[in-house]
Amino acid sequence: MAKKDGKRYSCIECGYVSLVPSGKCPRCGAWGTLEEEIPVAPSMAAAGTAKILTPVDISTLEPPRRLASGFGELDRVLGGGWVPGGVVLLGGQPGIGKSTLLLQVCGHISSTGRRVLYISGEESPSQLGLRAKRLKILHDGLDVCCHTVIDDALALAKDHSLIVVDSVQAMRTSQAEGWPGTPTQVRATAQVCVNYAKEHGIPMVLVGHITKEGRIAGPMLLEHMVDAVVMFADDNSSVYRTLRASKNRYGGTDEMGIFEMRSDGLAEVPDPSYLYWNRSDGAVSGVVMTVIMEGSRPLVAEIQTLASESSFAYPKRAGIGLGANKIGMLLAVLQSRCALPSLRDDIYCNVAGGLEIHDPGADLALAASMASALTGRNVLSECCLIGEVGLAGEVRPVSGLAQRLREAARLGFKRAVVSSREEKPRLDAEIELIRVLSVGEALARAS
Ligand code: TYD
Ligand code: MG
Fold it and tell me: Could you mention a single GO BP entry for this protein (predicted)?
């Protein structure tokens, strides 16, 4: 409770309320985030607006017309392109390629005869010009503005189809106090942008730097204010970049876009299955293929396991791209349900190409990969294993089996081990199905 006539200070990060000013929030530990609450006059709070509202019949609402970005991979993550009035926050580590990606998007849109505005608070006009030349995007409709006061920069926007603000931490607004990058300024700048986008029906992109922990720098509120948060990351690779939405009001958050950084900018990766598949199929023990779903896209993934004699009292289990809990659970299933000998070896599992697997459809392949590494028996050649594994050792059906099998057949796989409980998928592709009930049966029939 506030003291009578006393001031209240609330943390713009976590909402903690304090009766005394402080440089550090006692709850979340953030610095400089406690701000004095300005009370709203009771008459104002109760007043509402004079506008008379009428409800709208939902069936009369048209879906928004989206603007293509020029990159199919980015459109896929956004849910079909930029939405009028939608604000997207693009986050990523410095140097990952955020400015490059957005300049290329601006280049594409301006090449179609539309105007775009690129506001940069980080680079000089000559730096931007140099980069645009390198990216070969010197089109007429690409207006740039190198300035750090967002209110002035937005005053330049007229008939632009997209506005980019690079970055929200470098800009400030005259409507708030403080240096650029402080929570107050970041929040106020984002609010100015959101208001502008909604009022004018123009899509906007805000670039956001990320902290050591991988969060977008600034108040948490920032992510709530925008319509979509898209993260650009390098997925343990120096050349390839992945784009994923962590929030999306206009589409799903399970799609992934893949790009390659080249000397002339970012290029889409048209066939990402080849990125994650070494084609070392069947030749080495411990190497097993599966097909996972990344959003609506099937991807062939290669799971590798190495078992080596342990010199520790407790054998080591390590996984890159796979959860340690999953590895432990499937090892226990192999031991209890498939009579694999007591597991005294260190086990190292890896997904080729730096892919992270969260899809339970890869369970069967991981179990087979570990069994193969432990017994030295290879899995059948030109074969992929697709299925979720339960603690009873049963193989369960997966989502999108037909799509997965089509992708496997397209890449030349001749057979696939799947659950017997799968409905027969309608396929126009040639691939033999080995239907199994349990992991034990899968190991017996696929090796
Ligand atoms: P940049 O877009 O400036 O990153 P961010 O805005 O996320 O900080 O990308 C900078 C890096 O990208 C830089 O290290 C050089 C590299 N790069 C290329 O490899 N090729 C190119 O064509 C461009 C423009 C940049
Ligand atoms: Mg940049």
Answer: proteolysis
Give the amino acid at 291: V
Instruction: Give me the amino acid identity at 379.
Output: V
381 is in an annotated binding site: no
The pLDDT value given to residue 161: 96
Whether residue 94 has its Cβ less than 6 Å from ligand 1: yes
Q: Residue 439 in 3-state DSSP?
A: helix
Q: Give 71: exposed, middle or buried? Use CB within 10 Å, 0-12, 13-18, 19+.
A: buried
Do residues 166 and 207 lie in contact, with contact meaning Cβ atoms separated by under 8 Å?
yes
Nearest CA to ligand 1 atom 14: 95
Instruction: Work out the mean pLDDT of the chain and round it to a whole number.
Output: 88
CATH number of 275-445, picked from 3.30.1490.20, 1.25.40.10, 3.30.230.10, 2.60.120.340? 3.30.230.10
Element (H, E) at 102: helix 98-111
Residue type, 63: P
The CA 28 to ligand 2 mean position distance, Å, reads: 29
Going from N- to C-terminal start, the domains of the chain cover 1-40, 64-270, 275-445
DSSP 66: P
Nearest Cα to 145, choosing from 159, 165, 161? 165
> Could you give the 3-state DSSP secondary structure of residue 437?
coil
Query: Which CATH number is associated with domain 64-270?
Result: 3.40.50.300
Instruction: Give 90 Cα–ligand 1 centroid separation in angstroms.
Output: 15
pLDDT tens-digit map of 173-187: 998 888 888 888 898
User: What span, in angstroms and rounded, lies between the C-alpha atoms of 27 and 9?
Assistant: 13
Distance CA 297, CA 252 (A): 13
Spatial separation of the C-alpha atoms in residues 378 and 158, rounded to whole Å: 64
240 pLDDT tier (thresholds 50, 70, 90) = confident
Q: What is the DSSP string of 34-61?
A: EEE--PPPHHHHHH--SPPP----GGGP
190 close to 226: Cβ distance less than 8 angstroms: yes
**Which ipTM did the prediction report?**
0.95
Verify whether ligand 1 is closer than 6 Å to residue 90 (CB atom): no
Give the up-direction half-sphere exposure of residue 222: CA atoms within 13 A in the CB hemisphere. 33
Phi, psi (degrees; rounded to nearest 5) at 165: -120, 110
Helices marked H in 395-438: 401-410
Res 432: pLDDT:
93
Residues 6 or more apart whose CB falls under 8 angstroms from that of 201 comprise 84, 85
